[in-house]
Hints:
Largest sheet: 4 strands, antiparallel
Distance between the termini: 99 Å
Order of helices and strands: HHHEEEHHHHE
Shape: elongated
Number of strands: 4
Radius of gyration: 33 Å
Helix content: 40-55%
Amino acid sequence: MASDETEGATPPKRSKLGLLVGLVLAVLLGAGGFYAVYSGMILSGSAESAHEPPADDSGADAPPVAFVPLDPMTISLAPGAGAKHLRFQAQLEVEAGAEEQVAAMLPRVIDVLNSFLRAVEPELLADPASLAQLRAQMLRRVRIATGSHAVRDLLVMEFVLN
């Protein structure tokens, strides 16, 4: 008879308080660890670098550069495009002392840029997000045309679709 009474009785419910406390502690420790790493309290390098003043970004140790302006160009776009012309003006950032060498190659540079911009799809020219990609491609072509690595960058001064 005693076994019949134990079979019919339901087992007592276990408390979920331990699970809840463990979950809250895990969340708190995770948030505290994230804050410690994010704020730089831990894993931010050496202790000396945490107390150093920020580096001076005035550009005093930057190598000297010069700029070679390109003549403004007006490129007629393909028929059927929304715009009919592209007005483009840029400057070449070159190493100091290489201005004459690059300036002697300007007709070739203008030809390369004119040919490239004429061949680009008008939809790509109209997309503002594509300017960085176009600039990188133009810089590559300018470096090839000048035959030297004296050209450091191509600075777009004007890029207007009419």
